[in-house]
């Protein structure tokens, strides 16, 4: 069965970015001129995804507004001949997006469970908004290609510094069945550094079979007293094979302040409107830091 649906959990409280997130969804924070969630949606589209469900919560209405049409704005840009800007605005409306609210945040696993009716009996992709990925082939498409080979759930993983493993779900890799594809023995959510089974961390892209919902419906709270998706995947792995695909492209973590700043600088250095000014500013700034 072809993978054509994606779920984007976006109901988190964004406490790492308080006080800004009291009134603004963190998924709407811009990297230069584009909200972070738009990068996720664009990755899905480039990967062949047709329908996207965004799981939102309190204070997340701006996400819906961003992907809605604004006739007055579009007409104004058209009348003023600002066709490039008009094209940018219209890019956010040519997408099959659906929204559902998670009234009480109970963890990532609970947010994914809310997509059960939307997904039905199909394989689907979960895409987390804190991770922006860059590669010649979008990471979501890489996972879909793996699924076409194995017809099994496949998670994206990436090697991280060993002293950072406690921040992630980590896999205990089994056999490398083909280059960069591992048959997983076990999944561990946020292990202690001295107990982590590997440095291969789950990085925010999951291709899952619909049987994951059976696991989530009976999953007990785990780390942080929340329903952890990693725990449910570990249980799924006991009844059907689950694989891990090692991502070799660029990953940008915008889920914490310094990561967001680094991402903004890196993307700014690639942005045609600001890259030259930003390079000059960094050179001048560097002189004052010596």
Automatic annotation (TrEMBL):
Tagged with keyword Transferase: yes
Swiss-Prot/TrEMBL GO biological process terms: UDP-alpha-D-glucose metabolic process
Pathway given in the UniProt record: Carbohydrate metabolism; nucleotide-sugar metabolism
E.C. number: 2.7.7.9
GO molecular function, one term: UTP:glucose-1-phosphate uridylyltransferase activity
Entries under PANTHER family matching the protein: UTP--GLUCOSE-1-PHOSPHATE URIDYLYLTRANSFERASE
Protein name: UTP--glucose-1-phosphate uridylyltransferase
The species this protein was found in: Liquorilactobacillus vini DSM 20605
């Amino acid at each position: 069965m072809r993978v054509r649906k994606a779920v984007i959990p976006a109901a988190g409280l964004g406490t790492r970015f308080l006080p800004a997130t009291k009134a603004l969804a963190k998924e709407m924070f811009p990297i230069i001129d584009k909200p972070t969630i738009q990068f996720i949606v664009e990755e899905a589209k480039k990967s062949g995804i047709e329908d996207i469900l965004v799981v939102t919560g309190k204070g997340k209405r701006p996400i819906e507004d961003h992907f809605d049409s604004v006739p007055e704005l579009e007409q104004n840009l058209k009348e003023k001949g600002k066709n490039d800007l008009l094209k940018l605005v219209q890019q956010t409306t040519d997408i099959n997006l659906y929204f559902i609210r998670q009234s009480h945040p109970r963890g990532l696993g609970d947010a994914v469970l809310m997509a059960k009716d939307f997904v039905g009996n199909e394989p689907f992709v979960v895409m987390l908004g804190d991770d922006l990925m860059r590669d010649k082939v979008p990471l979501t498409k890489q996972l879909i290609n793996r699924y076409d080979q194995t017809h099994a759930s496949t998670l994206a993983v990436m090697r991280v510094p060993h002293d950072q493993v406690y921040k992630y779900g980590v896999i205990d890799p089994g056999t490398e069945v083909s280059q960069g594809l591992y048959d997983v023995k076990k999944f561990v959510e946020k292990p202690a550094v001295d107990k982590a089974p590997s440095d291969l961390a789950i990085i925010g892209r999951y291709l899952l079979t619909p049987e994951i919902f059976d696991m989530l419906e009976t999953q007990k709270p785990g780390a942080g007293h929340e329903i952890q998706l990693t725990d449910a995947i570990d249980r799924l792995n006991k009844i059907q094979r689950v694989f891990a695909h090692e991502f070799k492209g660029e990953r940008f973590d915008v889920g914490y302040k310094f990561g967001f700043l680094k991402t903004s600088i890196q993307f700014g250095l690639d942005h045609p409107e600001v890259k030259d000014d930003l390079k000059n500013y960094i050179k001048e700034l560097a002189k004052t830091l010596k």
